[in-house]
Amino acid sequence: MDNETDWRLASDWYSPTRLHDSPVKYDFPGDRFIPNRSLMDLDQAHGTLTNTTVARPTHTKSSIEYRKSLSNLTLNAEGRPFQMLVFRGSPKSSRKLSPMIDETRCCNNETLTCRPLRRFPKGEARILDAPRISHDYYLNVIDWGKTNLLAAALDRKLYLWNANTCKVELVSEASEGDYLASVNWSENGEVVAAGYSCSKIHLYDAESLHLVRLLEGQRGRVGSIAWNGHTLTCGSSSGAIINHDVRVRNSQVCRVKVHKGEVSGLKWSAAGSMLASGANDTRVYLWDACKMSANHHVYRFDHHCAAVKALAWCPHDYNVLASGGGLDDGNIKLWNTQKGTCTSSTETKSQICGLQWNRHHKELLSGHGYGYECQNQLCLWKYPSMSRIGESANATSRVLHLTQSPDGLTVASAGEDEALRFWNVFGPAAPGNSRMSYLESLLSLKTSAIR
After folding, report:
1. Among 289, 328, 153, 129, which Cα is nearest to 223's?
2. What is the pLDDT at residue 353?
């Protein structure tokens, strides 16, 4: 064999055509086989692994044909066809279902249903006193920042609680007749914004605890605030939404007014391209960040029949928004923000005061007030089926406010009982999720090698 042939074989060792082109005879042991991928749809396989919202297909015609073809082309040492071994781990008679499986699977036309492993915690991990915290449904008075500082507005006073040291510091105190209506941390956790009933907005430095900026221009109390980079979006009881660029002297860069009632909910998407707003007029508006200055909204949702305060963007599907209605509505709705359609509506029969997505599992947590079924409770829902996983014990007062720790493991709730309760409800990624990531990576590598 000449040098040119040696080089070709060495450089093309993993090529699918190597066995056909090589002049060398290879003796494979009986447990080796040459797969035939002519009937495999790798794009469909990758989509099935990565998209859990799509039901797993049963044995289709193409999959049956592929199994038959694979069985005929797989040879043992004697040249006779044999069935491929399936990774079962143990004989069928002694096999047990894994407790990590939490969905229905189809295998050999048999449906296997397993209980979900996830459970709601039996009680709070910590309780802190929060005297004089607001009992107003339309306000947003707690927020947990990236640096693990929790800001809490207790009537006229703004406090910071350090989750690492458990130290509490007083930031500011409003004058008589004024009170805090909203707080929100900047994305880097260095500045906390506070909205007041007298229409002012204060920006405080988290390290020095000093006032660094005063923003004006609103009318009525500022009950909702949301950061998007250097832009601070504020909603007031007048129904107006104002964007402030905190880097410039004249900070007001955009003002829109389409809501007919107090703006009680504002949430920017993770990419910062879309803003969702909810108000006392029962409507939800979607705004494109590039087109807000023209007072042009992308969609208007009229499906709720009560005030909308609870808004949350899904971390698993970037184009999914969750919204919750007030007492006369009591529905959690999921929206496809690309098509402008409602994809799911779950009736809770109680006031929805807050929504928080679990970043480690496909779950949604809701906080409730007045009602019948979920009254004064926290409820955990499986996404996208929206089946209830569990709930907290019945409380005597409404759960009005929700916020999430920066690591996404703990949720803090506050309500009319004037207490901050910390729940370890969002656990870390389960082994099943790690296993799925491994399968996705393996499939990606195989796909790249084939192409």
Report:
1. 153
2. 97
